[in-house]
Specification:
There is one protein chain. The chain is an alpha/beta fold. The chain is 44% helix and 13% strand. The strands form 3 sheets. Strands 3-2-1-4-5-8-9 form a 7-stranded parallel beta sheet, with helices on both faces. Strands 12-11-10-13-14-15 form a 6-stranded parallel beta sheet, with helices on both faces. The protein has a two-stranded antiparallel sheet with strand order 6-7. Helix 6 packs parallel to helix 9.
Length: 477
């Protein structure tokens, strides 16, 4: 039995994916300890997981509050006071960049392997500097730059014609130009200049913060990572990366040797902590009422992390007002309440929190914003999609892959009318090619879950056989 430390950012989607992977590791006899700067004690207790919280951010925040600028102290100050304040703040920043409390925690836990969310860069750099075996995990499809692979935020599709390939190359040029502009704009802004006098956070994503951590830890970022790939501010090129997707749903390309597609981690057995009792009662009553109705059920979720699109949801509801034989369940997430959408027809159920896996198990179609988690859960349950990308992060890329692999309809959230929405749903419900492809992908996902390449990859890493090349996890194609 190996002891594995799993370091997570605490976001609901990534935590849920991690719980499925750690369930499989526990079933294989391994011990897992979760580490996060977020307070996940309730979640981990409910799911019988060990948990340790990194609290250094709060400690440095308290020290920062004790060092206000001289002009805010309400007394006279001069150049000497300003210089001492500046030196104290720079020392605090340098101390925070060492991530000493995280290092001490890892030394206490003595893991044989550290699994980290790919965007927890400061933690990744610290673990690497300690010489610990590291595996990075992500919910994204490929974040690596490739001549035939559009950036993940792009709506472009791959192609073999010269013009199509040129558009992809130009998209990468534009992506990196935007990254550089954003970095320099941030550096030269008032808040950016003040940033150099603030502690480095555990979840830091500023390249300047990460370079400070790398210097403090003796890591050469230019050797370990590349800044020209899609994920900002950098992507690791010499450490194994597990993508919680299958390669069959990726665009055609040859992935880099350190990227392993291990299948989606759909945690059917997870115990939910953040729930809404009123929503659960409404769902149970709705489910009991419709179990014998035999009517079309459509699930709509436009995400819970970003601001919800109330205008689009109102058009969706209007579409169902014109189709009384269809039923709609809407998961509103944390950004809207049912009152925000006004009166609804009797075939529409609005839930502040929806038990998504339970609904998808009964759904005939899903209206989604294109988030990777919902995309994979729909594919797992064999539910065709109408995808209204809200253009955040990787949603355009997921929408493009859904369209490429014919798992549904890629729609326009800005221009689609209620009639368009109704036509899109009818199309995915009746198109034989979409239904066939959805069943094919669902069967492949069942096979991948049985083969469990994720467990194979982690155990290969424990044996030192999952480096930047050579080994492919069992089940990968």
């Amino acid at each position: 039995m190996a002891h594995i430390v799993y370091v997570t950012d605490g976001m609901t989607s990534t935590v849920n994916s991690s719980l499925e992977l750690t369930r499989r590791l526990a079933r294989a006899g391994h011990r897992v300890t979760y580490v996060s700067q977020a307070d996940l004690r309730a979640v981990m207790t409910a799911n019988a997981q060990e948990f340790r919280q990194v609290t250094s951010d709060r400690g440095f925040a308290a020290q920062l509050d004790a060092l206000p600028p001289p002009w805010k102290r309400g007394r006279r100050w001069g150049p000497g006071t300003l210089l001492r304040w500046y030196i104290a703040r720079r020392r605090l920043r340098a101390q925070s960049a060492e991530l000493g409390s995280f290092e001490a925690l890892l030394r206490e836990l003595q893991p044989e392997l550290v699994i980290l969310d790919i965007e927890l860069h400061a933690a990744v750099i610290t673990a690497m500097s300690m010489g610990l075996p590291v595996v990075l995990v992500m919910v994204f499809f490929s974040v690596f730059r490739h001549a035939d692979l559009p950036p993940m935020h792009s709506t472009l599709l791959p192609g073999t014609r010269l013009a199509e390939r040129a558009r992809i190359r130009w998209a990468w040029v534009a992506t990196n130009a935007a990254r550089l502009r954003g970095e320099w704009r941030s550096r030269l802004s008032r808040s950016g200049l003040a940033h150099y006098l603030e502690p480095v956070r555990f979840d830091a994503r500023s390249i300047d913060d990460l370079q400070a951590v790398a210097r403090a830890r003796g890591i050469d970022l230019a050797t370990e990572a590349d800044r020209t790939h899609w994920l900002r501010p950098l992507v690791y090129t010499r450490r194994p990366v597990l993508s919680f997707n299958i390669r069959e749903l990726e665009f055609p390309h040859t992935p880099p040797p350190n990227l392993h597609y291990v299948g989606p981690m759909v945690a059917r057995e997870r115990h939910e902590v953040v729930t809404d009792e009123d929503s659960l009662r409404k769902w149970e009553a709705w489910k009991a009422r419709r179990d014998n109705a035999g009517r079309i059920l459509v699930y709509c979720s436009l995400g819970s992390y970003w601001s919800a699109d109330s205008a689009l949801l109102k058009r969706v509801i209007a579409a169902f007002a014109r189709e009384p034989e269809w039923e709609l369940v809407v998961g509103l997430g944390s950004k809207l309440t049912p009152d925000d959408l006004g009166p609804t027809p009797p075939n529409v159920l609005l839930l502040r929190w929806a038990p998504q896996l339970q609904v998808l198990a009964r759904a005939d179609c899903c209206l989604t914003h294109g988030g990777n988690t919902t995309f994979n859960e729909c594919a797992t349950y064999g539910v065709p999609m109408v995808m209204y990308s809200t253009r955040h992060v990787d949603q355009n890329g997921c929408s493009a892959r859904m369209h490429w692999h014919r798992l549904g309809v890629r729609a326009n959230k800005d221009s689609d009318t209620p009639d368009d929405i109704r036509d899109n749903i009818r199309h995915v419900l009746t198109d034989p090619d979409i239904r066939h492809r959805v069943r094919e992908v669902q069967e492949r996902l069942r096979q991948v879950e049985y083969e469990d390449p994720a467990l194979a990859a982690v155990e290969a890493a424990l044996r030192g056989q999952l480096g930047a090349g050579g080994h492919r996890a069992e089940g990968e194609r």
